[in-house]
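step: validate -> pass
step: tokenize input -> pass
step: predict -> running
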Amino acid sequence: MEFLLLILFSDMAYKRVMIKLSGEVLGGSDGVGADPDSVMKICKEVKAVAKTGVQVAIVVGGGNFWRFRDNKSLKIPRSSSDAIGMMATIMNARLLAEALRSIGVNAHALAPHSDDYFAMPYAPVRGKKLLDKKYVVVCGGGTGNPYFTTDTTAALRALELECDVLLKATKVDGVYDKDPKKHKGAKFYDKISYDEVLDRELQVMDLASIVLCKENSLKVHVFNLQVEGNMLATVKGKKIGSLIY
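step: predict -> pass
step: emit ->
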């Protein structure tokens, strides 16, 4: 068994990865609620990565249930709205963990401000111990504070959990200078520096998260989640998507 894992690891570019998923991808074509087919499709992609022996952590958003910008008309204070959003991410984290378990993948949902009933309380030491035991760690609850996006959470958790790379799952092939769905002539970058992303204010991730990655030399690999097998190919270091470094 150890020999088999060594063979598998030889094909991998990374040993421990952080995968950033939006909440919308769990909601299917509408991006709302939880679509069983979409959830299970993602879980099978994660399982393929976990089977190689690579340690997998995930940060998931909550936009399929709640986002501040979508509910501004309610006049709810930003801090309160973000608290609701953080609860939405815990729902998604628990959903992903349970769905992964249903297909034979050991997984736990962790979140700040949790009490074990909805998710295990998050702590870097606990997360790393679970990863070492080959559990998939699904982080919900954002950073535990308002005003921070789940992109920033993904960068923070990746650093705390000592991940080799942040894998940003998107609906497009990688980083462009404009939205490729709106602009046919959008320029694609297979590699791009943190500084250029910041200077151009490219919207691939929240800019605060890019700053955090830059300051700590955490590479970001952006890939298209809608293409089957892309997640595993990215972990193998295949030349797909875009690398921010």
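step: describe -> The chain is about 35% helix and 20% strand.
step: cleanup -> pass
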